[in-house]
Amino acid sequence: MRYTISGKQIDVGEALSTHVETELGETLSKYSQRPTDATVTFSKDAHQYLCDAVVHLSTGLNVQARATANEIYAAFEACREKMDKQLRRYKRRLKDHQKDRSEPVEFGAAGMYVLAAEEDDEESQGSGSEPIIIAEMEARVPTLSVGDAVMQMELAGVPLLVFRNEKHGGVNVVHRRDDGNVGWIDPRGNS
């Protein structure tokens, strides 16, 4: 497994790197035998240390955790515990959903745009102009089943996930609703 351990404007020493590789390796070996790479980034915000960790599994799923603490080792341990909890919570689901998958998840490319927020002045209301695109990026759209998409959304800790449904190839969306439930949008049925 490849590890990328870095710091944003802080020096990550050899001792911390070794500690991260050892502890994260033990956590991942308990739950999944096929991680491909892990990225751990440390940063400092005032007096708090922040640890972000993302682990890519060979099945195409990502596990992500973030934690803060007053000491850098404590921030990593809190992050590792969150990841451990996620993997423990989804161990059965990961095992059941991925045992029949012989190939990794396929990803397609899609355009992603960030639009400028609408201003409340009289000029923009009367002109009927389109919002300005302030960022263009390329996003990866995975081909997953609905259950795998919900699991990926929860593991990554994101509020919504756009994916290509592996049953019919159409674009679908799963999202976290305000009431805590998961919503699924499948526009294929509406013609």
Ordered list of secondary-structure elements with their pairings:
Layout: E1 2-8, H1 14-31, E2 35-45, E3 48-57, E4 62-69, H2 72-89, H3 91-98, E5 107-115, H4 122-127, E6 133-144, H5 146-156, E7 160-165, E8 171-176, E9 182-185
Helix pairs in contact: 1-2, 2-3
GO molecular function, one term: ribosomal small subunit binding
Family: Belongs to the HPF/YfiA ribosome-associated protein family. Long HPF subfamily.
Function: Required for dimerization of active 70S ribosomes into 100S ribosomes in stationary phase; 100S ribosomes are translationally inactive and sometimes present during exponential growth.
Give the number of domains: 2
How are the strands of the largest sheet arranged?
5-6-7-8-9
Low-confidence stretches: 121-126
Q: CATH class of the largest domain, anyone?
A: Alpha Beta
- Per DSSP, what share of the residues sits in E-state strands of 2 or more residues? 35-45%
Plain-language structure description:
One of its GO terms (cellular component) is cytosolic small ribosomal subunit. Required for dimerization of active 70S ribosomes into 100S ribosomes in stationary phase; 100S ribosomes are translationally inactive and sometimes present during exponential growth. Its main location: cytoplasm. This protein is of the alpha+beta class. It folds into two domains: 2-98, 2-Layer Sandwich (Double Stranded RNA Binding Domain), CATH 3.30.160; 107-189, SHC Adaptor Protein (2-Layer Sandwich), CATH 3.30.505. Helix content is 32%, strand content 38%. It has five helices and nine strands. The protein has helices at residues 14-31, 72-89, 91-98, 122-127, 146-156; strands at 2-8, 35-45, 48-57, 62-69, 107-115, 133-144, 160-165, 171-176, 182-185. The strands form two sheets. It has a five-stranded mixed sheet with strand order 5-6-7-8-9. It has a four-stranded mixed sheet with strand order 1-2-3-4. The protein is globular. The termini are far apart. The model is unreliable at 121-126 (pLDDT under 50).
